[in-house]
Amino acid sequence: MTGHPAPKELREVTPYAAVMLCDNPSVMTLEGTNTWILRAPGREESVVVDPGPDDKKHLKRVAAAAGTVALTLVTHRHKDHTGGLKRWEELTRSPIRAYAPKYCVNTATPLRGGETITVAGLRIGVLHTPGHTADSLSFLVDHADEDGPGALVSGDTLLGRGTTVLDGKDGTLADYLGSLDLLATVAAGRVLLPGHGPDLPDASPVVAGYTTHRHERLQQVRDALVEMGVTAEDAKPMKVVKHVYRDVSKKAWPAAKMSVKVQLEYLAEQQG
Question: How many helices (H) and strands (E) does the chain have?
């Protein structure tokens, strides 16, 4: 864990997890989308998490590094994680499992929170962690035959840097705060393997920091509403952004608007 890899280069993070960074950087994807290749030492078969967007070269690089893909897992529906699934299935013939049935192929069943999968010498616990999107999942990864700290594959629920945007189409703040509470019970000592940004040695302080940040931002929104003299139900999200996110680059304001929208919905529900 010495920093984020360059795009197109496979880097081992733990003895059972390696990352291939897709070359699709943006405000929303940070350095790009992380595709995770998981397998116990000495095992030929692997598990791939989030093959990535429909980038033919990236998918071929991942397939070459992954070898025999016993299973593909999807953390959530966004296209930078799922756009390449059709091409990926053609390359690997791997069963693909996700929370949403539309992304499951080759007779694979949808993933559900509380499920445990044993594959490629690993135990993978499935956590339903909605908030970023309704279908967001996280995975607890442990060596099937050995004790010791495992990993938390977090998709976009936790990032390696910055904060997560909540998608107003189906993400909610109530769900997200609940997911952070759930992750706080399992994160201690686990290496964080996020959907974007660098891996981190311990997921627990990241969860704590995200929780604190969310409550601080929520209070800032409350204060802005008082200053503006409007209710959460009547407030315009972008006007709130201009009050609360003065310290953030304007390039990030469209993403901030999405988060403010769900914060206002959360406060309106509380007031109702």
Answer: 7, 11
Average pLDDT over residues 124-135: 97
Contact 53, 27 (CB under 8 A): no
pTM: 0.93
Nearest to 1 by CA among 164, 190, 162: 190
Closest CA to 102 of 79, 127, 70: 79
CA distance 156 to 174: 16
- Give the pLDDT band (50/70/90) at residue 130: very high
Q: Cite the beta strand spans of the chain per DSSP E.
A: 10-14, 17-21, 34-38, 45-49, 68-73, 96-97, 116-119, 122-128, 137-143, 151-155, 191-194
